[in-house]
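Section handout 9: paired folding examples.
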Amino acid sequence: MNLYYINDEDEWQQILDDLSEALNMPTALVDPQSFVLQESGERHELCKAIRANKESLIGICARTQKFMAKEAKETRKPVIVSCEANMTKCMIPVFSDAEFMGSVVVCGTGIPEEEITTAMIAKSINRSVEEVNRMIEQVPFVAQEKIAEVTNSVFNKIHDKKSTD
């Protein structure tokens, strides 16, 4: 059994597209090992730069992803945190009965009350602080309350549909 037992590819794509549009964030459907199966939305320049560098991808993105997967499996609820760069990252876990099937991951917006960690990012991606500051100007900011509301709604939609099938 896998994620496509719960929804077909088109249904997952609609969920990803709707979520990306609602939060102005790129989304991905990932398997239990965090392998990307489907995506929606465009990453902004700062996230592209972070993901293009192996060290920053591991240090900023992967470290957070591993922690989130563990917490999502334990709590069986969406997890919303700040990545090492101080941008929002969300994981909406998908279960079939007690089995963790994978998740919908959403990331890449600034948090209105917090500052994106410019100096650490600049060092990590080997760019100047000025260049990173220019990239930060293009980062969308979304309130944590809105992110929580939307991700919880998607979580409920995925699991309510599954329970009625």
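Moving on to protein 2 of 2.
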Amino acid sequence: MANTSDIRKGLCIRYNNDIYKIIEFLHVKPGKGPAFVRTKLKSVTTGKVLDNTFSSGHKIEDVRVETRSYQFLYADGSTYHFMNTDDYNQIALQESALDAPQLLKEGEVVTIMFNTEDSMPLSVDMPASVILEVTHTEPGVKGNTATNATKPATVETGASVNVPLFINEGDKIKIDTEKGNYMERAKE
């Protein structure tokens, strides 16, 4: 058993007869009244996200997990296939288990969390950023760089990302997987 002081991003807990992963949390200490923790929980079975508030000192049942590195092989509809980089075993997961499936390209190495009790995969953690090639974008307009203007660009996985005007087709860009935002042009 853990309590609210143990809450951190990525922690898996048992709540309402389901297993949830904490994707956001905020410790709040108001001037009047007891402290509490505001959380955003994502169900690892259904992918549903819910907001919940735990009072300070509330007991939570954490789920013991172990992580393993897997390489993304291919997607077959809404089923994503991965291969363990150590023993080459393959597993298939549903799209709801992934946080940012639109940014996942073949060959990308991800971390998959497994429940230690029954070895069921719980969630897929993407790397903090990915480098993808821009396959389509409109040419930028010269002289329009005084403002922080952006334009939509399609990357090799099919995802759409807003990029600065100086990015052209064929450029490789670094994308933040948590928010899906452009970070910088990738170094060649």
